[in-house]
Amino acid sequence: MRVDEVEDRLCNFIRERLLTDGEPEEFTHITALFEDGVLDSLRLAMLINFIRTELAVEIPYQRVNRDEFHDVHAISTMVADLSEVTPR
């Protein structure tokens, strides 16, 4: 799975399912997710579930942290890396 493909899918999911009015006005793949209020614990769980069910990638517990989930690009890079070793 390519990073740009994952970025597109994650950005669409976040825009459609996680953002509410006014959060943040200019959302991109480099928006700081926690700092800009896009992610909280519930939304993080929803995002991880989306990655598991829709992208068929399991995120190891050790990788669930602010660095790996800083922005969509960081998440996409991690997911692309994990998809290469995750059996389908």
From TrEMBL:
<protein>
    <submittedName>
        <fullName>Clorobiocin biosynthesis protein CloN5</fullName>
    </submittedName>
</protein>
<dbReference type="InterPro" id="IPR009081">
    <property type="entry name" value="PP-bd_ACP"/>
</dbReference>
<dbReference type="InterPro" id="IPR036736">
    <property type="entry name" value="ACP-like_sf"/>
</dbReference>
<feature type="domain" description="Carrier">
    <location>
        <begin position="4"/>
        <end position="83"/>
    </location>
</feature>
